[in-house]
Design the sequence.
């Protein structure tokens, strides 16, 4: 009797250790079963690659300007020197990206990353797990070329098609959407693994649960996440707490059902946040697309990550900086072509706060010494079109102008533009503000080259690709003193400013005046510093940083499971 009691007690006491141990063992057995099932597909893939390489020529053609050297050269140094994995590494890099044909900013990152990997490891195989059944490899590659001007090397790129993508669509889960999608991503990733177990597994869409499952099943496959946006943020959790207090305080929603539901909802969020933190903490290499995302991911995943793990780092997504640099000159000479114009490129959305910008511009105008071309005399001519921009050599005008360029996507946008026009009218500055809706790229480019100042009125913008474009074009930026524009983009370069930060209408007006009042030398110097600042966001810098993180992963892979299956 005593023996039974004692052994029961012992089992109960040990169960916290036995159960996880049993689960881990089971998952590993399952993992190695899945891996052995996919070995033949792996061999086929390498066979295909080998014959394609023989037909199409070995590595990706390295352009004459030595792209390849540059990519290797600007590593940020997370892999110890002299310990760099060599060019010959021949593994399978799996990219989990169920919506790879979407053609958005997230996809640009995916393709730029794949191209960098193809250059660094010419014999490695990149595999994209996608749910886009209806599109063939050639079509996808062509679209990437057309849409992003990114040339992929077909022989070492393969697509594996997932059949369970509907499990991650938000429409599948009317309730508990986040949890549903996350659990759905487990099914989707299992689908992926049964197609092929990669040597390195990377997610660029925010499926941390999939990476967690990979680690559980295949502990020796290094994982990486490129995070664009946290699935749940600290702000959300805090706002939930706040609204809870509010309802308590006001006592309006004192009904038992509401209280109960509120509590349940709060619990759900906290459970989800816990799961998200847990899954995220198991990822080997974590990159984020901005400082804003980095700080959120740090507070969610950081505390649970092992202290020896790699730091969570920002890898800015590639922006088409090079193109603007070649199209727009910046020099004392080109300064003659610049007009004292303020340019604001942004969709006509409330958060972009065009109202504020128009009001501060009006304040600027009214503070100027009275100029001969009085603004208040109404003119019959309609809003000038971009082709009628006066050339600086023909007009002596030094009167600043505000140019608002933006896309108008729906009726709400149209109404907003109408209201802004009314505002401009009532402020008596109709002649000084130009609206350009749905401008074509050449028109935008012309204004980027001819204006003097680039404006952004949004508060707490996470990044601000538009501001990078201002800098690349040599515009002096005036941005809100918050978010990415302040923290990431309009920063000091070589001890000098690249633009101005402002918070209020007065501060914006002052910044406009300060920017326009700079001497020609100061202006050119600031434009050149702005350009330098924008260079941190080029495709080349992205590729360099990406590769340095990949080198960490490849080293890890070689350490964890040395002999790779020899190809062919
Ligand atoms: C595409 O990229 C190449 C260099 O990779 C560049 O020379 C070319 O101008 C780009 N084309 C466009 C339309 O941006
Ligand atoms: C990061 O990703 C989010 C979500 O797609 C996007 O809103 C943000 O602009 C991105 N940041 C950068 C630096 O591109
Ligand atoms: C625009 O800016 C003003 C002035 O700072 C502010 O009061 C207002 O809330 C802003 N509007 C939006 C939509 O951000
Ligand atoms: C600009 O940023 C400051 C500081 O973050 C903020 O207080 C202010 O409301 C912002 N202004 C606008 C117009 O959004």
Sequence:
């Amino acid at each position: 009797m005593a023996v039974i009691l004692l052994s029961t007690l012992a089992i109960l006491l040990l169960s916290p250790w036995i159960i996880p141990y049993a689960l881990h063992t089971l998952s590993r057995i399952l993992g190695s079963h899945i891996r052995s099932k996919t070995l033949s597909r792996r061999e086929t893939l390498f066979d295909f690659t080998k014959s394609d390489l023989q037909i199409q020529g070995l590595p990706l053609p390295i352009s004459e300007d030595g792209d390849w050297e540059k990519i290797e050269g600007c590593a940020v140094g997370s892999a110890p020197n002299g310990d760099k994995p060599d060019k010959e590494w021949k593994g399978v890099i799996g990219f989990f990206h169920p919506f790879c044909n979407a053609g958005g900013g997230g996809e640009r990152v995916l393709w730029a990353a794949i191209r960098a990997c193809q250059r660094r490891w010419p014999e490695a195989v990149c595999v994209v797990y996608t749910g886009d059944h209806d599109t063939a490899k050639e079509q996808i590659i062509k679209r990437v070329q057309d849409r992003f001007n990114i040339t992929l090397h077909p022989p070492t790129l393969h697509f594996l098609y997932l059949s369970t993508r509907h499990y991650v669509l938000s429409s599948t889960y009317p309730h508990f959407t986040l949890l549903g999608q996350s659990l759905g991503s487990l099914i989707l990733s299992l689908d992926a693994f049964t197609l092929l177990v990669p040597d390195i597994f990377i997610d660029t869409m925010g499926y941390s649960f999939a990476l967690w499952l990979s680690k559980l099943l295949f502990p020796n496959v290094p994982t990486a996440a490129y995070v664009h946006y946290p699935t749940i943020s600290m702000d959300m959790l805090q706002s939930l707490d706040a609204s809870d207090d509010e309802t308590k305080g006001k006592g309006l929603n004192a009904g038992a059902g509401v209280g109960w539901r509120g509590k349940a909802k709060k619990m759900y969020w906290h459970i989800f946040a816990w799961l998200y933190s847990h899954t995220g903490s198991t990822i080997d290499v974590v990159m984020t697309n901005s400082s804003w995302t980095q700080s959120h991911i740090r507070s969610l995943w950081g505390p649970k990550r092992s202290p020896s793990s790699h730091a969570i780092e920002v890898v800015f997504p590639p922006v088409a900086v090079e193109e603007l640099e070649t199209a727009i000159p910046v020099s004392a000479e080109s300064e003659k072509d610049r007009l004292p114009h303020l340019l604001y490129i942004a969709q006509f959305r409330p958060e972009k706060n065009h109202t504020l910008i128009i009001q501060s511009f009006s304040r600027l105008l009214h503070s100027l010494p009275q100029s001969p071309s009085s603004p208040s005399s109404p003119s019959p001519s309609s809003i000038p079109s971009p082709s009628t921009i006066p050339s600086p050599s023909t007009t002596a005008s030094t009167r600043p102008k505000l140019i608002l360029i933006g896309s108008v996507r729906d009726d709400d946008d149209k109404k907003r533009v109408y209201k802004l026009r009314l505002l401009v009218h009532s402020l008596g500055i109709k002649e000084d503000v130009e609206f350009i809706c749905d401008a074509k790229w050449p028109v935008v480019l012309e204004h980027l080259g001819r204006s003097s100042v680039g404006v952004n009125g949004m508060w707490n913008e996470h990044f601000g690709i538009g501001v990078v474009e201002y800098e690349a074009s040599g515009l002096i930026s005036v941005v809100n003193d918050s978010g990415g524009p302040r923290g990431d983009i309009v920063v000091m370069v070589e001890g000098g400013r690249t633009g101005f930060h402002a918070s209020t209408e007065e501060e914006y007006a002052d910044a406009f005046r300060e920017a326009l009042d700079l001497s020609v030398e100061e202006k050119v110097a600031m434009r050149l510093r702005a350009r330098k600042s924008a260079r941190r966001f080029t495709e080349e810098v992205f590729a360099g940083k990406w590769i340095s993180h990949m080198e960490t992963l490849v080293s890890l892979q070689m350490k964890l499971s040395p002999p790779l299956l020899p190809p062919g």
The radius of gyration is 28 Å.
